[in-house]
Design a protein that fits this description.
The protein contains one helix and twelve strands; from the N terminus they run E-E-H-E-E-E-E-E-E-E-E-E-E. The chain is mainly beta. A hairpin with a 4-residue loop joins strand 10 and strand 11.
Length: 171
């Protein structure tokens, strides 16, 4: 039999399980190869490539005002970083100037995209003068991270945002 209790025999394919009925749970050890993934109602199909290419490879939500004591301070989880995925730390280079340091193997190459948002102060008003920007370093992004800056366009000066969010998409 292809299915004994909750154990599949080695080499069993999905087509050989069609007569078994509905599986309510399946645990796979080792590599599994899928062509299409669907939600529980059988809708919204995605291929493994779509899942791999479309999900965030890394993200961080940090407090740009966490430590104003000087340059090159490192923010970590619970110390400036509110929450993150595949981000090891954030380096504060001075007012409004940060490097987001990615975990090893977070991205496969330096051709990724970064999206970000900020909140400048504690009020809920939209600021028309606050702007986050990518600061290009020699060679642009690399697999270890990227540098971002935050500035007040109206005063033409750097500023530390209360909330800084960065999201990375790519290979």
């Amino acid at each position: 039999s292809a299915l004994t209790g909750s154990t599949l025999a080695s080499g069993v394919t999905a087509s050989s399980l069609t007569s078994v009925g509905t599986l309510t749970a399946l645990t796979v050890s080792g590599d599994s190869k899928l062509t299409t993934i669907k939600d529980t109602s059988g809708n919204n199909p995605s291929t493994p490539v779509e899942v791999a290419q479309g999900r965030a490879k890394a993200w961080v939500n940090f407090n740009g005002q966490f430590d104003a004591s000087g340059n090159n301070n490192t923010f970590t989880a619970g110390n400036g970083i509110r929450d993150s995925f595949n981000v090891s730390s954030v380096t504060d280079h001075g007012t409004g100037d940060y490097t987001v340091n990615l975990e090893s193997n977070a991205v496969a190459n330096s051709n990724y995209a970064v999206a970000f948002s900020t909140k400048s102060g504690t009020n809920n008003q939209v600021s028309t003068s606050s702007r986050p920007m990518i600061r290009m370093i020699t060679g642009g992004y690399d697999t270890s991270g990227f540098r971002v800056i935050h500035s007040n366009v109206a005063s033409q000066s750097a500023s530390d945002p209360l909330i800084f969010n960065c999201i990375v998409f790519g290979d």
